[in-house]
Amino acid sequence: MDERLTGALALLAGYTAPHVQLSAVALALGVTASLPLAVAASRRPRLRAVVLAVASLVQTIPGLALLALFYPLMLALSALTARLFGFGVPALGFLPTVLALTVYSMLPILRNGVAAMLGVDRACLEAADGVGMTARQKLFRVELPLAAPVIMAGIRTAAVWTIGMATLSTTVGQASLGNFIFSGLQTENWISVLVGCAAAVILALVVDRLLGLIEAAAVRRDVRRMAIGLGALVAGTAAAFAPLVSSPGETYVIGAKNFSEQFVLAELMAMRMEAAGVNVARKPGLGSAVIFRALAAGDIDVYVDYSGTLWTNVLERRDTPPRDVMLDELTRAMRDRYGVTVVGALGFENAYALAMRRDRAAGIATIVDLAPVAPRLTLGSDLEFLSRPESAALKQAYGLAFAQEKSFNPTFMYRAIADGSVDVISAFSSDGRIAGDDLVVLADVKHAIPAYDAVILISPRRRDDAVLRQALAPLIGAIPVERMRQTNFMVDRDTGKTSVEEAARFLASGIGASRIAPADRR
Amino acid sequence: MESCGMASDPLIELIKVSKSHDRGRSRALDGVSLRIEAGSFVALVGTSGAGKTTALKTINRLIEPDRGEVRFDGAAVADLDAPALRRRIGYVFQEVGLFPHMTIGENIAITPQLLGWPKPDIAARIAELLDLVELPQGFASRSPHALSGGQRQRAAVARALAARPRVMLMDEPFGALDPVTRDALGSAYRALHERLAMTTIMVTHDVQEAVLLADRIVVMSMGRIVADDTPGALLAGSDSAEAAQLMAMPRRQAERVQALLDATGRPPAHG
Asked: What is the largest CA-CA distance in chain B?
């Protein structure tokens, strides 16, 4: 069997369990909230109009955007509970995902619920009154049983949607089958993507069939089949929740953004901490806007960011001081403003840099050379570059204006420059594909872009954590840019690529055997 | 129970009852007063929109009047709990309204169940009622879908009679059935009415049905009662133009039938 397939299958149970947990909780909440609302809305035309309009509106928001919107909402909620009860609810991970999924699951249940209630035969309602039922008896003995098949169809739709959308939870730090898809997309491990998709589809189909079985059995009042369907659903859900019961105590959460270098560095830190004997949870694939706030809020304990990114995006500074000055000032500001500890720089920079294919860059060595020809060229960027201050700073400093600007997932951005569909890309200076794809980096002679030293950040609550400090200290200043590029290319190259774990081991081996040996660490 | 001495104390009474629909734009009932004695079979007739159904439904509070009072068995119905009141009154209507997710037996058992009857009593009552409405015992476990229109309305009558009400309200009960089935069900119900000593109020737009079944016909027009008498007296003539027009129909039919029978020279069937 293919090594990548065995690797993916080994993770299957670990990702399926939280996926089922998420979907089950969200669906249960969705049904609980939607049914009474549907009944109330079926009685009051005005409420009905409002409820259905709001639910439809929510549905038009793309799933990823809904999750992203829930994050600041959860941050505010977290701040509120921290003030009121002394502890902040986690703003990242399970809770926001479940809430977003719940909201998303409500529309089909609401819409079908209202239609079902309105569709109940009027003669049956008149008969229910005529025989002397109270409003409550009428609801439970006549209206709901008659509306049940249509309501159930709505619940089945909601279940399929919820299971599908739960894959997006990866982006806000909640593990699910989406981890296969997002990490596979990043490292171009299509087998991982396929395993993630297939598992989500199979899960959705199985749940749909079971709900269908229960529905059919309910109509025919076949108690045995109903028990089989319900039993299977309950057993599956219980199995997914089982790991929670025996969950170990203290866990360190390691975050990573959504590209290969981050995956490898997170894995490297995880390996070192696991070797130190502590439990580690990985939250890869976080958006770069979300990840710092998650750290400051304590939802993750440690991750690697880049000095220039924090400088411009978090501190909102527009000046570009020399590398060392910036690092010192950043360390002080992080501690004073956010209580976040900058442990130190790893030793390499991952700067935004404009790059071109060597064969197209004839006569263009610096961004100054690029400016006059830029109006005839197309810029390819990653998903965030164009909206970041660095991009504005570059354009302003050099008077850059491109004919066209296109955003890509980083993987596809490199594909686009390789096949010539874009002329210039916003590359990353530590990226292995710069050498691999024979790209030239255009010099930023005016220093429009700040330095991007990779730095380890620790959350406020782990500030004085000796285990964490000891495990991570040997990494400081230990990774030169050539080594990082080489490691990144192991994961990113098209043929003969290695797993993130292997790449992390390769990186660790360069740091020095004595430093990582268990005997030394105690 | 002790009688208070007034022999003609009505079981049901409407006192100056008014009701308008669509926020007063159309008047369904315009000061209707009506006294119905225990044991009588009253037909409410009139053209559509005359207010017959509205008047009927004020009795079991499916419709609440705007003004006036409805009394049942010595109490104002407005003071009674509506579900409790309805459990004491049988109600059968044109659309039947058997619950499709229940068997015929379960449908019949509804009101006794709501009243908390013991299970064995309910089972015995279902069997008794199926006999009463002339349906086979095996129908108890059937779904309403499996029955014909006439059979369904028989089951609906059984359901309405289940908790032994003294009063039966019927709103065009046989209106959706073919003439033969309709006639059979009508006479079967009239026999039940006698046997169970019911008080029956039946809304119908079919004057012939009213003449055949009722002891008393109340003619309504534009939300008022325009005539109220025995079928015989109304056939003989009425002060009300509407009533006279309505009653002219069965009379013309009868005259034509008589003329045809005379022409063939055979004596009429009932001498």
From this structure: 62
> Where do we find the tokens 């080594």?
A483
CA distance B209 to B188: 13
pLDDT of A252 > 50? The answer is: yes
* Complex-level ipTM: 0.91
For A125, the closest chain B residue by CA position comes to B97
Q: B110, B143, B203: which to substitute to probe chain A, counting the most A Cβ within 10 Å?
A: B110
pLDDT per position as a tens digit, A265-284: 999 999 888 887 788 888 88
Chain A residues with beta carbon closer than 8 angstroms to that of B114: 131-133, 137
Interface probe with A: pick from B85, B95, B96, B101, most Cβ of A within 10 Å: B101
**Of A184, A258, A265, A185, nearest in space to A488 by CA:** A265
The pLDDT tens digits of the residues spanning A198-220 come to 999 999 999 999 999 988 888 77
**Count of pairs with CB atoms under 8 A, one residue in A, one in B:** 57
Ranges of chain B whose pLDDT falls below 50 = 1-7, 271
H helices, E strands: number in chain A: 23, 10
Minimal CA separation from A107 to chain B, in Å: 27
Evaluate whether A67 touches A171 at the Cβ level (below 8 Å): yes
Burial (Cβ within 10 Å: 0-12, 13-18, ≥19) of residue A108: buried
Residues of chain B with C-beta less than 8 angstroms from the C-beta of A122: 95
Q: Where are the alpha helices (DSSP H) in A87-175?
A: 94-118, 122-130, 135-138, 144-165
A380-394 pLDDT tens trace: 988 888 887 788 888
- Chain A residues with CB under 8 Å of B100 CB are 121, 124, 146
Which amino acid does the sequence have at A470? Answer: Q
Q: Write out chain A residues lying below 8 Å of B87, CB-based.
A: 131-132
Residues in chain B with CB shorter than 8 Å from the CB of A123 are: 93, 95-97
φ and ψ at residue A310, rounded to 5 degrees: -65, -40
Residues B157/B169, Cβ–Cβ less than 8 Å: no
**CB-based contact A126 B95, cutoff 8 Å:** yes
Question: Which string of DSSP letters, residue by residue, matches A11-31?
Answer: HHHHHHHHHHHHHHHHHHHHH
Amino acid symbol at B115: L
Q: Average pLDDT, stretch A115-140?
A: 95
Residues A178, A196: contact at Cβ < 8 Å?
A: yes
CA distance A70 to A120: 37
Cβ partners under 8 Å of residue B214, min gap 6: B41, B42, B43, B202, B231
Give chain A positions within 8 Å (CB) of B160: 130-131
Contact A271, A298 (CB under 8 A): no
With an 8 Å Cβ cutoff, the interface of chain B facing chain A consists of 60, 62, 83-87, 91, 93, 95-101, 110-111, 114, 156, 159-160
pLDDT at A521: 34
Instruction: Please indicate whether, in this complex, the C-beta atoms of A146 and B85 are within 8 angstroms of each other.
Output: no
User: Are A261 and A254 a contacting pair, CB within 8 Å?
Assistant: no
- H helical segments located in B81-166: 82-87, 104-114, 119-132, 149-161
List residues in chain A touching B: CB distance below 8 A. Answer: 121-124, 126-134, 137, 142, 145-146
Q: How far apart are CA A21 and CA A169, in angstroms?
A: 12
DSSP A212: H
The contacts of residue A164 (CB under 8 Å, 6+ apart) are A200, A204
* Per-residue pLDDT tens digits for B112-163: 999 999 999 999 999 999 999 999 999 999 999 999 999 999 999 999 999 9
Closest by alpha carbon to A264, among A483, A433, A2?
Answer: A483
